[in-house]
Amino acid sequence: MEKHNFVTIAGISKEKILYMIEMAQEFEKHPNREILKGKVIATLFFEPSTRTRLSFETAANRLGARVIGFADPKVTSGTKGETLKDTILMVANYADAIVMRHYIEGAAQYACEVSPVPIINAGDGAHQHPSQCMLDLYSIYKTQGTLENLNIYLVGDLKYGRTVHSLIMAMRHFNPTFHFVAPKELEMPIEYKIYCNENGINFEEHTNFSEDTIADADILYMTRVQKERFSDLMEYERVKNVYILRNETLAKAKPNMKILHPLPRVNEIDYGVDENPHAYYIQQAGNGLYAREAIFCDVLGIGLDEIRNDKTIIG
How do residues 233-274 score in pLDDT, each as one tens digit? Predict the structure, then answer.
């Protein structure tokens, strides 16, 4: 397998998604290996992150790689005026792959055009979050036993939520029915509705969030209203608590339904829901380790057969 970038979910085939899920399953069986021993991974986070950065760094460490990078751009030469291009070219001298989160949409695509080593997009503005999408797909597959023909309810910030935008693109292969639940101010952008129409994806839109609205859900994907994306804080105050999931909202939920959330949460899931058997968002975050181990191996040209035959398993 050749080395390549992991920047967008849009061009990934159905076969590749299922292949990556198989890789993640192998890593869940044996997460501690030395299959990347001697490799160096750079993590460049120009935007705050907890789960994504730590799970990428943990994935690299558990596979035997070393990690360099930064979690605060204030400590980099960017504060001196260094361009993104020069930062990428400089770091590529030291690393075998670069994980990058950036606040500008399209920054990861630009980085992969100038970088001599693989780029992994850890989120670019409100655009895409493909590694989160892979762990979401793995979580859906684990809980439902399939990705086919599911009713997926996306709730909350659908305007700025890059995780839901990526999930729509990835699920185009699996005949989903999406339900977009959002206030008018945060409704799904028109370009993603056009994408659904062009790709034969069924969807419905709702502004009401109740036990009746979500009664047919297989996956209930809650999202945080992202204060950092708003230029008008009054608008944020109007919509920040518009949908709050409580146990009573789950009264009519199907037995197989699972609640996902990319985290962090603010007020959109009541803490009482954490003990509900439908809650899966903490386990979902844990699945990020296996999905990101798979991503590292994939971009570095390590295939499923090599992972299955790997003799460097620890423990």
Answer: 666 566 666 789 999 999 999 999 999 999 988 889 999 999
Residues with active-site annotation: 51-52, 80, 101, 129
Give me the DSSP letters along the chain.
-----B--STT--HHHHHHHHHHHHHHHH-----TTTT-EEEEEESS--SHHHHHHHHHHHHTT-EEEEES-GGGSGGGGT--HHHHHHHHHTT-SEEEEEESSTTHHHHHHHH-SS-EEEEEETTTB-HHHHHHHHHHHHHHHS-SSS-EEEEES-TTT-HHHHHHHHHGGGG--EEEEE--GGGPPPHHHHHHHHHTT-EEEEES--STTTTTT-SEEEE----GGG-S-HHHHHHHTTS--B-GGGGTT--TT-EEE--S--SSSB-GGGGGSTTB-HHHHHHHHHHHHHHHHHHHTT--HHHHHT------
- pLDDT, tens digit (0-9, with 9 covering 90-100), for 67-77: 999 887 665 65
